[in-house]
Amino acid sequence: xxxxxxxxxxxxxxxQRKLGMGLVLLIVLIGDRLSKHWIEQQLVxxxxxxxxxxxxxxxxxxxxxxxxxxxxxxxxVFVVAALLLLLLLFLHRNTVSExxxxxxxxxxxxxxxxxxxxxxxxxxxYVVDFFDFHIWPVFNVADAAIVCGALVLGWEVLRHExxxxxx
Length: 167
Description:
It is a single chain. This protein is mainly alpha-helical. It has helices at residues 3-42, 75-91, 93-97, 101-123, 141-166; strands spanning 48-52, 56-63, 127-132. Strands 1-2-3 form a 3-stranded antiparallel sheet. β1 and β2 (56-63) form a beta hairpin. It starts with a helix and ends with a helix.
């Protein structure tokens, strides 16, 4: 195999990875937007509809703050934080491109979630939440994506540290 064909294979894999990341990001973002639109058509603010009695309900809540309603009324803090995160990811895109596929998809899921909640904060001034497990604050698809993406990234950091220590 020549150097040129190896380079072409690498370029193809990079393009394929970027397309996959874009697709995952779009699926998260569109899923978040559609689920929020759907729930607002089904419930009125504050209404709860049990799905699994005593365990899980759909409850429409408008959250003007962050996680657990933290800093309610300071939406600009979360808008700026989200924009800074997106800017940081953009500025470090070349460093990110050298990471594992797992890191890429973790970032795509996390970014889709950040964009979903950022949209709500900019357009509505609050985030639409509706998954209610009764033992945890009400959340949405974007929140779940942010947590899942962060867990994947944390897992990759731990794996990288373990590999580095064993070498």
